[in-house]
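Example with several molecule types.
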Amino acid sequence: MIAIPKFFCNQYLLRPCVRNVFQRNCVATFKPSRQLKFSAVANHLKSFKLVTRNVTISSNSTPTLQQSKWIGRWLGTCAGMCFGAVVIGGLTRLTESGLSMVEWSAFGERPPLSQEDWEREFEKYKQFPEYKQLKKGISLEEFKFIWHMEYGHRMWGRLIGAMFVIPATIFWKKGYLNSALKKRVLIYGTLIGCQGLLGWYMVKSGLEDRFHGEADVPRVSQYRLASHLGSAFVLYSLFLWSSLHHLLPAKVMEVSKAAIKFKRLVHFSKGIVFLTAISGAFVAGLDAGLVYNSYPLMAGRLLPEDLLALSPAIRNFTENPSTVQFDHRTLGHFTVLLLSTVWLLSRRVVLPSRARYAANAVAAMAWVQASLGVATLLFYVPTPLASSHQAGSLVLLSAALWLSHELKNMKYIPK
Ligand code: HEM
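Resulting structure tokens for the full complex:
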């Protein structure tokens, strides 16, 4: 039996007959009669160990196919849970619940159990600007609702932590993880921790005593909201990418120069989807979805009158709600145009069949997402539409990631 790590196949671009066996597995096995065919491969694998008389070339750096599947399922579950966290976080923001818990503890806050506990918690909330300026006079029942929304979001985050750490420890101990995976696990774990800290750092900005006057609405900093959402998107993307790597490995293909250009365009589009999503976070953070509720014009104009109202001009891009909405619309339009071009080009180049499905999904989702955005605007940001638009951005990003993952192993080999 001969076992060969997948990265080796990618690196050496093995002939198609050999590749087909390798693509699906991190480790491929062969009967002794076929060994000779792979002797050339074996020669390259000097750092691997010859074990049995059937020539087992094994590397402690490679999980088996079965182990790889389990790792893929685990990372896929973490990705799904991150998706859930983004949706719950969005609902928490849209129901104005995010500032109801005024304290934070890394290992979990104890929920109030008795009537006295609840009243004490409510009293604490009353000391902060959101209650004083926005929610004065709400009942204890209303407070309980917003408190539970925020509590649910925090606990979901901790559940992700547990869902990540427990299997990671088991897989690590059982030797399922090679050194590259161990590094990744450490990075992902750190990112999960940072995500929680960033969440609290964001909430703190809404609790500070810095809101004065009627027009000054107590809310979290749009910069911190965008960072919290952005890092959630990064974490989700890493989990999804690694899960695809284990469950749906990309085909190794020799392709034309045009296909390589297409691959670069897909990478660029993925970046633009991410950028558009971050600009959306600024719209959400400044409640900029409520400043111009007409489409395609903004109060009858292509460019809003107050586009550069703040000085210095650079501040407008992150602090002026009109400019922030304008930028997000423009980026949204550009995203749709770009992804439609990707779809058109995908018909003209030779691609793996799954990549074609992914290109269809990306283009269709871009149109759905833009339509949801327009509807959110025209109906003055109702919670169900705004939440669907937010979830749609993750679906769109997932489709873009899937497409670029399918193209990952396409290589151009000059003749
Ligand atoms: C097609 C690419 C688009 C993507 C990837 C995208 C993504 C996003 C994201 C991630 C948010 C933040 C949601 C949140 O944190 O709650 C957002 C908010 C928003 N987007 Fe988009 N968007 C796109 C297109 C559009 C278009 C074309 C429009 C309208 C012309 C639009 C209007 C809005 C509005 C009004 C909000 C604020 C909603 C709120 O306050 O919750 N979007 N977008």
